[in-house]
Amino acid sequence: MAYTVRVGSNVEWRTLRETICSGDILLCQTYGFFGILEQIPTDSPYTHVAMFLRCTNNRLYILESAIDKSYKDVITEKTDGPKLVDADKYISHYLGTNSGMLTYRPLRMRGTNRPFSFSEKQKKNIINEIAFLIQPSVKYERKIGDLANAFFRIYNLEISDPNYFFCSELVSTMYMHFGIYLRRPSDKFIPRDFCQKQEDLFSVSMNKGKKSVYLGTEVTIVLRI
């Protein structure tokens, strides 16, 4: 059985990219036979999740963990494991080659709908974590097979290696470095947990109860409308 994501609206990439902030997420639904194989084990429409990061020079990147030679880390040029990829190149190639559908969800503050704000300490922690993640020795977790592997780990049938990151594990780990508290350990997430229909990912309070966050409405990214 194949699953199809249905969202409320489409947004053109060149318009959306100007509003994206660090912590917003990208959900991927891969087309074709292998996409279906990845959807079935976890009853999920999504096959991959990644995170947007906007740097001080206003460059927009996607932080993901995957094995894909189409997308290289901008610093180390590695293709296996956690990597920082130019967002424009990623989106253009993914949609331009009709690889699948891309869905965006913003990370926002509850009550204000404003983007998440970082303290200087959090910024340093994030930079240090990314420096670790993009090392060639840190790999994508693929021991049984993509989403099936994550499914087995969630039910404690497999022990997670700290030098291997599944895509959703990477995103949830980064949220913890943001100072955002999740409802369960980072290695217990799969891409479907970031879907709008799932329960709220985050604990009610964060940063000692001073702030709380949520993921906003899903929209489908298109190159042109």
Features:
endopeptidase fold (from Nostoc punctiforme), 25% helix, alpha+beta, globular, disordered N terminus, 225 residues, single chain, two-stranded antiparallel ribbon
Could you explain the architecture of this structure?
The structure is a single chain. The chain has 225 residues and is an alpha+beta fold. The protein has a single domain (10-222), classed as endopeptidase domain like (from Nostoc punctiforme) (endopeptidase fold (from Nostoc punctiforme)). Helix content is 25%, strand content 23%. The protein has six helices and eleven strands. The chain has helices at 13-16, 33-39, 87-96, 120-133, 146-154, 167-178, and strands at 10-12, 25-30, 48-54, 60-67, 80-86, 100-105, 107-109, 139-140, 164-165, 213-215, 219-222. The strands form three sheets. Strands 1-11-6-2-3-4-5 form a seven-stranded mixed sheet. The radius of gyration is 16 Å and the shape is globular. The protein starts with 9 loop residues before the first strand and ends with a strand. The model is unreliable at 1-7, 154-159 and 204-210 (pLDDT under 50).
